Amino acid sequence: MKVAEKRLRQLGNRMLQELKRGNSPYIEIPVRALGNVYFDSERRLLQLGEKSGRRYFLNLAHAKKFMQTLLVASYCLELIQKGKHASLRDVYYALKRNLPNSKEVTFQDQSESNPVIEDLEVSLNLLREELHISADRKGYLIGNIVLRERVVDETFEIDASQLGTGGWGIPSNVEEIEFLDIQADYVLVIETGAMFERLAEERFWKKNNCLMVATKGQPSRGTRRLIHRLYYEANLPVYVFTDGDPYGWYIYSVIKQGSINLAYLSEKLGTPDAKFLGVTMSDVDKYNLHGQVHKLKEGDIKRAKELKDYPWFKNEEWQREINLMLEKKIRIEQQAFSSKSLEYVAEVYLPEKIEKEDFLP
Amino acid sequence: MALADELFREFRSMSVSEFFRKNAAMLGYTGRIRSLTTIVHEGVTNAIDAGEECGKLPNVYIRIENLGDGGRYRITIEDNASGIPEKYIPEVFGKMLAGSKAHRNMQSRGQQGLGISGAVLFCQTSSGKPVRVISSTGEKGIIAEVMIDVEKNKGKVSKKEEFDPKGWMGTRVEMEAKGVSYNRSKYGAFNYLRLTSLANPHVQIELIEPDGTKVLFERVTEELPKPPKEVKPHPYGITADDLLRLAREKGGERKSLKTILVKELSRFSDKRVRELKEKMALILLSRKLETQIEDLDKYLSEIQDEEEKRRIKKIYSGFLSQAAKILRKEARYLNWEEADLIVNAFSRMKLLAPPTEGLSPIGEENISRTMKAVLNPEFVACVTRPPKTYRGGIPFQVEVGIAYGGQVDEEGIEVFRFANRTPLLFDRGGCAITEAVKSIDWKRYGIDPNKDKVALLVNIVSVHIPYTSTGKQAIADVPEISKEIRLAVMEVARKLMRYVKRKKREMEKEAKMKALLKYVPEVAKAMSRLTGASEEEIETELSELISKKYLSSEDFSEEEREEAIKKEEKVILISNGGGLDEGSRKEAETTRE
Ligand SMILES: Nc1ncnc2c1ncn2[C@@H]1O[C@H](COP(=O)(O)OP(=O)(O)O)[C@@H](O)[C@H]1O
Ligand SMILES: [Mg+2]
Q: Does B103 touch chain A (CB under 8 A)?
């Protein structure tokens, strides 16, 4: 029996026991809020605190959510037993229905089912992918890597070097992806799809013997998990290349330390050893990009100030970078290098940075 | 001829009947509907009074016939009481103010001996017809037609006939009035009888309406009210006028005033005569010296001049013997000034409150029964307050019933006012009952005074009801009475609040249970899938869990809330001015003795 199945059954049996004793069944769920998240400086990861709450059937304020959680739990068990995967939206539709003799529905919309799924993940200490629930594919992978993907009862082998400029769309569940063969020195994580394609067209990965991953904005959980596995299982250093703005830097922060909302998954998703390649504020001077900068907006400034307070940015290098940004009140995009030439990033900027190991921690 | 003689040639003394013929409105004969209601009222109150007096459960039969001819009606009222002896018939029906037992100083519906003769007067002046009285005391039956000789204020029997009653006892009065009208409105005779039935659960009332409809207001208790006892008037409640009348009525056979006072007043014994004399003398002294003296010794001790002291003492002892002389004299020669002095002196004495056991309220249980029967409400609460006195000497008692929801007619708070169980239909605005009810902050009791269906029965019983006018439709605003009404209304409002709250809580509980129960099937299905246990069993157990939680829990905060409200009420009473408490303070003092 799979771990997920076992834990779901345990959950059910515990509740049944409570009921038999004449008590209200409940589900214990760790609190997922800022107040219950802390930075573990030793492991360099955001971690979930000890606080947890109980969701009781007999408590009128909990009852509906209790039912919803149980609906999701029993549906996940069904998925696992059938070996099928459902998207977040599938789950919502599969479970949305009218309650008997009532106008009330089990789930009003997806914004009600999504958090319940997360509740169940924390409560069971499982990934939603392990519960056979998937999210949209978002990131891409390209490079000298051969993978094996299982689809229900078939397996497919994928060679990510044979997929042209598009690369392989990273599924939300990468748990059962097997790495068959990897020929690469590092992983280059790229924020924008446009930059990824640019570099793919230059066949940067081939010329520099690396794997390229596009996050296309904030990385999905599958993408983060894949980066994590490439670092820990294939021992590949991870370099992150984002826009030189607070949003890009925050993407780096999430890849590295995890996010508040998914702090309970940091251990599975975070890659604390990832390095930041660029774009940095110092690069503006170094590569003379003064003509390509944009002014920071109010929101950016606020965000930058927040970043400055993050424990993992409390080092000399980052403080200097953030201060520079706040001083000059500017931001710079990955594609700013195109002002020099289309190939400049692939031929000059990236090789130079990697060569000199000009990274931020 | 002197001018005055000329001017006074037209002067004629007016008899009582003449006075009321010209001022019929004062007796309640105004408007077509009200006039008919008043006639019915006079007949019915007498019928019930008479029944109670002879210890019989009253059966009252009323028939109202429309004779056409511009509002000509015949009103027949029949009772099953003792009947009226032949020789009293002209007195009762033909003489105003004379024929009554109301002087007995006991609780009764009638009070002035103005009632039925007033109706006869109104009938004969409007229709020209005499009243037909059929009465039997058991052995002998009399049929008589009576008219009032208005100038002489005397009954005139025009036709008289004997008949064999064959065991029937009672009185049947047939009156004919013109310019009156009948309907079922608030002010009509129908509603009057409905309310009479409400306050008199021991009475059976049968009404035949003009269109032949027979209405029966049924008796809901077989128990006669405790007969009211005659209570001697209390010195505090008496006026100079009352005292004069008492002295004249009881003062025959050379009885001294002192003897009359001791014999005819309650709580005034031989032992208190000395004190009365002293108080009288003190009042006279105060007048003479033009200063208010409460305590003679204290007053004297403040005077330095020994000569002056002696002089005052001498005047005082003079007044003392004057007072003694007044009390010694024959009662029937008492004059108004002396009576006023005595009443004044009474008010300065500390006397025990009068006995109150003579009163006969409806009683909580009976109010509850009758309100349920007549109004068919969802909830009823009643309170009969302990007897109190007003003006220090007149016993009265307030009782209030509250009915809520169900078939109570109107939204908002409807007040049924009663005095000695007689409905008060008119002059609502000027009545102390209306005012007292209005002053209650209903929201405090969780009641919406505009939306909730609430009926209040307020009955005031007393030996002497302080009406605002001869129409006897509104209670005067006497502080002691108003306060009692408020306290009684608050008490039932509290009971209602408790009910409404409990009901609301029950409803909330039910809603909560329902809310939880609707999740049961889904939860059971999911739990069964996760565990493999029987879905049905889980469903049963979950449902049981819910009922266990909601059917057992008790809430104790309710009593605390009530305590809090009681405290607030005290504050209101105090803040509503010392006037309200005047009476009870006096009473507290007097009972301490
Ligand atoms: N139906 C009756 N049966 C017996 N006695 C009656 C009846 N109607 C009137 N009386 C007597 O006549 C008296 C006068 O009645 P009324 O004029 O109505 O004055 P009041 O009711 O104010 O005393 C009553 O006090 C009562 O003693
Ligand atoms: Mg009368």
A: no
